[in-house]
């Protein structure tokens, strides 16, 4: 089914456009990468703050992926300095554009201890680099996703032409664990494996995220579990505008329920688009309070129904009905001819 490409988001009133660069390079010493990333974080945050640069560093399969955003001259100078760092080599550019910031915090990083051979990861890097050389470019979130978390369900047939058209459903729970339980339950239901990632921010804030890919009513679907802490990370917030829905699993603790909604409101602040909030709670009063809080923040809230957070079958049945009602998933691909593309 053909999909409509979206126009890249414009800067908000009074906000200046910045440049965005994503590069990938091979680690010189792949042993103990997290310790090296900690040292990079310490020096980068001191340097980047002076020049208004926000960055995310990802490490997987013997490769670094460095996503940087900031004023053009400073950003390009930083890329040259990064290229000369002997901790990595063979730097390839996979994205270069201008527009509003995606990375809303100064620093994020992610480590995936994957057993995938570096050569396989390198094939995805080369493909994106070669596409860029031909004038074909993808949104920054798409580039990161294609590199470190490629969709594990392929296109079903020739009518599916857009690999960016798939359901994206986040899930977060008031007690943190139930969202991850739902992802593991879906993995068992669809006889597949869930994937895990660890992310950290600028203040040693470490959290996990799990996801699972499968087909929902014939359409590719990814469900991502994130902790309440994880909602604060710049890298996670950068992906929220791509999510169509965020499932919120509320429990019996009123304080934890309120904290969850507060984190969601904070995470969605200043974003160009917000996921629809789908609430699951066992009490109508919880739904009423959460709906008010969402409305005050300018967010859409919809009840999934009355159910407990641990009732995975009931919760996903309600989500599936919502997805079916909305129809085929929307694409996150931008107009490839838009002037925001630089390279």
From TrEMBL:
It comes from the Bacteria. It comes from Caenimonas sedimenti. This is BLUF domain-containing protein. Residues 18-110 form the BLUF domain. InterPro entries: Acylphosphatase-like_dom_sf, BLUF_domain. PROSITE patterns: BLUF. GO terms for molecular function: blue light photoreceptor activity; FAD binding. It holds the Pfam family BLUF.
